[in-house]
């Protein structure tokens, strides 16, 4: 996997974020340059290209491009073969257009996965965050995405304990979480960032309350994630192998990611069987946990790439080959 930055900087001025203060306004990379980098990655054998930016879905606005991200996706899929992946990270929900939905649905290269940090779900909290407060519009967008792109995996992040967050506002976040049922959701306890407007807001929430709210939200999301994962039991998923080793009983075992799993932040698919790192395989899912799926390898593609020896933490006795990737967002 490799990360490909398509723009830098951000035009938004969220109250909790310091990125614009040192990155400046958004500057889109020329489309020709992006396509050239994508072509080089394909020629190098990279199996997954991850498009990143501080504000991915605003790509091309400064270049006066109409529906810039959708246009870029159409073009990049002329460069990336259909048997490889293109993944989208850090999408801003208010900028997700019908053209972007159409591109995700139409191009087999584009993972049916969208990461769109929402940060909160109560209008008053969102206003203090200097984020769009229309949660009904966001909910409608999520429903539209799931209709336009069947089986799309949606990831988001929320902040708990933002200054002034009342019990009512926090309860609205939990209700939104339960209603929308995100496949993946991360939670951050608000932390004062020096120099940001939020750092001096009144109503700073105590660390004890932040921790309690974080614990509760995480527990609720784990139940939701388990329900979403269980929908895959009995079905097959295409998996990009990241490692291979042996199970406790000595049987061969592979670890990889499906289209539902971004590297480093999401789960893994574990399957009995053998396949080299950097190949795509089909796995029949037999068991689900909130983050990982378990199954048996049923078919294997032949798109091998170069491998790097590593060890998978948290799984005793399993050594594997991991595809090297460089994260360009920072």
From TrEMBL:
Location of the TRAM domain: 230-299
What's one Pfam family here? TRAM_2
Q: What class of enzyme is it?
A: transferase
EC annotation from Swiss-Prot or TrEMBL:
2.8.4.4
Assigned keywords, A-Z: 4Fe-4S, Cytoplasm, Iron, Iron-sulfur, Metal-binding, Ribonucleoprotein, Ribosomal protein, S-adenosyl-L-methionine, Transferase
Q: Which GO terms describe its molecular function?
A: 4 iron, 4 sulfur cluster binding; aspartic acid methylthiotransferase activity; metal ion binding; protein methylthiotransferase activity
Q: Tell me which residues make up the Radical SAM core domain.
A: 1-227
From the Swiss-Prot or TrEMBL record, give the protein name. Ribosomal protein S12p Asp88 (E. coli) methylthiotransferase
Species of origin reads uncultured Chloroflexia bacterium
């Amino acid at each position: 996997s490799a990360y490909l930055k398509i723009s830098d900087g951000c035009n938004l001025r969220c109250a909790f974020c310091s990125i614009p203060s040192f990155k400046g306004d958004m500057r889109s990379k020329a489309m020709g340059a992006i396509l050239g980098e994508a072509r080089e990655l394909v020629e190098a054998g990279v199996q997954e290209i991850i498009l990143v930016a501080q504000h991915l879905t605003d790509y091309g606005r400064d270049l006066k491009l109409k529906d810039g991200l959708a246009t870029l996706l159409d073009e990049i899929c002329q460069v990336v073969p259909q048997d490889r992946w293109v993944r989208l990270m850090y999408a801003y929900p208010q900028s997700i257009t019908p053209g972007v939905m159409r591109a995700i649905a139409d191009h087999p290269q584009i993972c049916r996965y969208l990461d769109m940090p929402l940060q909160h779900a109560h209008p008053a909290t969102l206003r203090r965050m200097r984020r769009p407060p229309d949660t009904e519009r966001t909910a409608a967008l999520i429903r539209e995405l799931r209709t336009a792109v069947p089986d799309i995996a949606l990831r988001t992040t929320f902040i708990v304990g933002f200054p002034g967050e009342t019990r009512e506002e926090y309860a609205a976040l939990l209700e939104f979480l339960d209603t929308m049922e995100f496949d993946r959701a991360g939670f951050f306890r608000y932390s004062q960032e020096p120099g940001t407007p939020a750092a001096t807001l009144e109503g700073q929430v105590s660390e004890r309350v932040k921790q309690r709210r974080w614990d509760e939200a995480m527990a609720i999301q784990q139940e939701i994630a388990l329900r979403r994962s269980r929908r895959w039991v009995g079905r097959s998923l295409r998996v990009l192998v990241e490692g291979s080793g042996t199970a406790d009983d000595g049987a061969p075992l592979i670890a990889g990611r499906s289209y539902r799993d971004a590297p480093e932040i999401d789960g893994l698919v574990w399957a009995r069987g053998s396949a080299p790192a950097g190949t795509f395989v089909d796995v029949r899912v037999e068991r689900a946990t909130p983050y990982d799926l378990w199954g048996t390898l049923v078919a294997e593609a032949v798109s091998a790439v170069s491998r790097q020896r590593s060890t998978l933490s948290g799984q005793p006795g399993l050594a594997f080959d991991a595809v090297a990737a460089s994260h360009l967002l920072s």
